[in-house]
């Protein structure tokens, strides 16, 4: 019998901290088997010690490296007997600054992790997802996919790409009975959130500070909701998405004023 012993299983990238770690914790509490993958080995070791070696498998993974992703999926498959109920493409990075003041190398790294990483993960995991009834491919997009955001232009573009892939895949993968959805979080308390942003975070409104566990709850809810495509966190961000579609110039100018650009 496999290590998972017939339990439902979730493969999580970016699992060593933040939203990925909280998702691993929540699904572990629900009795699922966890595959936790990250570039941060120390964080993975701490998570495995917390969850218990019988309840998870971990492995270092740079999501931008397709060969590493193939190897990670093979490790996961061996532990679950070829089952993958959820692929959670969560790993991501952000760098801030004016586009012309950031190095091309840093900008390319954002694309390689945030976009190519999601493509790598989905390519590698599809054989397992196809063999698992009611499987879900769940991706982390961002509220910055509602409108191109200044000072994080490439990050914002990368999350627009993830949103677009999610929408396209949700139709393409129907022929395999695989569902696809994404999360569009606003300001989440994670290691990626700078102290400056935390200090200035509003206490109410769509960009109030949200705890990472709220994203984990959305992943759980998405598995049990076969219809919903985009999960906004908080839900008020859906109105921002509508506003961007209805009057992008108005929202663009409002962003410029708010950010004093």
From TrEMBL:
The keyword rRNA processing does not apply. Keywords: Oxidoreductase. GO terms for cellular component: membrane. InterPro entries: NAD(P)-bd_dom_sf (IPR036291), Sc_DH/Rdtase_CS (IPR020904), SDR_fam (IPR002347). It holds the Pfam family adh_short. GO terms for molecular function: oxidoreductase activity. NCBIfam families: PRK08267.1 (NF006123). Belongs to the short-chain dehydrogenases/reductases (SDR) family. This is Short-chain dehydrogenase/reductase SDR. It comes from marine sediment metagenome. The lineage of its organism: unclassified sequences, metagenomes, ecological metagenomes.
């Amino acid at each position: 019998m496999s290590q998972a012993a017939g339990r439902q299983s979730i493969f999580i990238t970016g699992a060593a901290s933040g939203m990925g770690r909280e998702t691993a914790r929540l699904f572990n509490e629900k009795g699922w088997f966890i595959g936790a993958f990250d570039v941060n080995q120390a964080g993975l070791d701490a998570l495995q010690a917390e969850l218990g070696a019988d309840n998870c498998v971990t492995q270092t993974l740079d999501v931008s490296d397709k060969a590493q992703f193939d190897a990670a999926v093979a490790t996961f498959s061996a532990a679950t007997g070829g089952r993958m109920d959820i692929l959670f493409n969560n790993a991501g990075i952000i760098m801030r600054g004016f586009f012309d003041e950031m190095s091309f190398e840093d900008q390319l790294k954002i694309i390689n992790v945030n976009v190519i990483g999601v493509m790598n993960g989905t390519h590698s995991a599809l054989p397992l997802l196809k063999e698992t009834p009611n499987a879900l491919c769940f991706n982390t997009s961002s509220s910055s996919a509602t409108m191109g955001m200044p000072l994080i232009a490439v990050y914002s573009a990368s999350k627009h790409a993830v949103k677009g892939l999610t929408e396209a895949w949700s139709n393409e993968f129907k022929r395999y009975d695989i569902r696809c959805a994404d999360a569009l979080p606003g300001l989440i308390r994670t290691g990626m959130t700078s102290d400056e942003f935390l200090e200035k975070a509003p206490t109410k409104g769509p960009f109030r500070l949200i705890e990472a566990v709220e994203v984990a709850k959305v992943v759980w809810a998405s598995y049990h909701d076969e219809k919903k495509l985009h999960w906004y966190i908080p839900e008020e961000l859906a109105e921002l998405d509508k506003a961007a579609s209805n009057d992008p110039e108005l929202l663009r100018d409002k962003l410029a004023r708010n950010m004093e650009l």
